[in-house]
Design goal:
Blueprint (H helix, E strand, L loop, with lengths): L2 H11 L2 E7 L5 E6 L2 H4 L2 H18 L3 E5 L4 H10 L5 E9 L5 E4 L11 E9 L3 H12 L3 E10 L11 E6 L4 E2 L5 H4 L10
Parallel strand pairs: 3-4, 3-6, 6-7, 7-8
Antiparallel strand pairs: 1-2, 2-9, 4-5
Length: about 190
């Protein structure tokens, strides 16, 4: 599917918003991905899921792992699309020592030692949630074999230490609050997930 069609899906479902937003990473951005709006429409989301599943098949994962919340539905959907029938699981944020951010895999969904795990997420900007989920899989003794996302928003120079695939690469502004040109222009900051 051409990039224009992917963007059309995002706009028509209300998953792509433009303005001045507080991103999950704490940075400010000029576009916000509310990809739950895409995923609530199975017919519209199915081609996106199929693209991620094609990438996943090349890595032969035993388990598809998504960080809560954005990756929960996605992990199940990608796993269900794959002929090999990997398990689906999710990682949850918990308070780490000294208030440090971390994720754990619980509820009986932990990978077995040596399992091949693909981490999936709806959107990736800084890679924070993806890396926390990957860390949780590795702590359980699993081997992280890759990362797949619906929308890859990473800056060109930001690397993830695993094979990575994005259905759509969509670069957008992501600024430290102190350096945000939208703030300087007086554009009101909004929090779309609130």
């Amino acid at each position: 599917m051409a990039e224009e069609r992917w963007i059309s899906d995002l706009v028509e479902t209300g998953a792509l918003l433009e303005g001045h937003f507080l991103l999950t990473s704490g940075r400010h951005g000029d576009r916000f991905m509310l990809l739950s709006k895409l995923l609530e429409d199975p017919a519209r989301a199915r081609p996106w899921i199929a693209e991620l599943a094609r990438f996943a098949e090349t890595l032969s994962p035993d388990r598809i792992l998504g960080p809560a919340m954005g990756g929960v539905i996605l992990a199940w959907a990608v796993a269900s699309e794959m002929a090999a029938g990997p398990k689906a699981a999710f990682a949850e944020k918990v308070e780490g020592q000294g208030g440090q951010k971390r994720m754990v895999i619980r509820r009986g969904l932990q990978p077995r030692p040596g399992e091949r795990v693909l981490v999936v997420e709806d959107a990736m900007t800084t890679g924070g949630s993806v890396m926390l989920a990957a860390d949780a899989a590795r702590e359980a003794g699993a081997q992280v074999v890759g990362v797949g996302v619906l929308v890859d928003r990473r800056p060109e120079d930001f690397r993830v230490p695993y094979p990575t695939f994005g259905v759509l690469r969509l670069l957008t502004g992501a600024y430290l609050p102190s350096e945000c040109p939208l703030c300087a222009d007086g554009i009101p900051l909004t929090t779309p997930k609130a």
